[in-house]
Write a structure and sequence with these properties.
With about 190 residues, the chain is of the alpha/beta class. About 45% of the residues lie in helices and about 20% in strands. The protein has a six-stranded parallel sheet, sandwiched between helices. Helix 6 runs parallel beside helix 7. The longest helix has 20 residues.
Length: about 190
Amino acid sequence: MPPSSRLFAAATSCLIIIDVQHGFLASAPPAARDEIAARIAWLARAARHLHIPTLVTLEEEAANGPLLPAVAAAVAGAPVFDKWSFGLAGQNDILTAVRATGRSHCVLVGMETDVCVAQSALGLLDQGFAVAAVTDACFSPPPFHAAGLDRMQAAGTALLTSKALLFEWAATLPLHLRLKAELGPPPPGVTF
């Protein structure tokens, strides 16, 4: 059954953190690496506060490294999957875990925008999920980031910024103010 709302509400969302590893961020300038990791960690902390299920994938950890430390601290206790299919919907254990969240909306962050994030978005759309990619919490070196976003959007993926997603999750001013107090200052480049 297709999702009933275009909004990515806290009650219907799950957060999927894809391959946030040094090997995929190595081509980014150091400041950009820190900003992307900070945004993903901030979203993961918000998801924890809002009881939004979070899943993490790693691709070829021996070659690409472990989950970045800032993100690892934010997702402590979340299930981590070794991903062998570029699109996570092509791997049964991960797809089963996504379904087991009971959520209809999948929010994707991570690496690389035009490969694993895009293929995951397309596969999840094919499985009947509503899918959003967080534009400022995904990465591929130029021009591949923009190409990945364009492909996902053309297929029906919603493109959201970190700020827009947090406001959709909060939905009300009281919850926004509570999250603002609990999460502390937002990462660089984000107002909340």
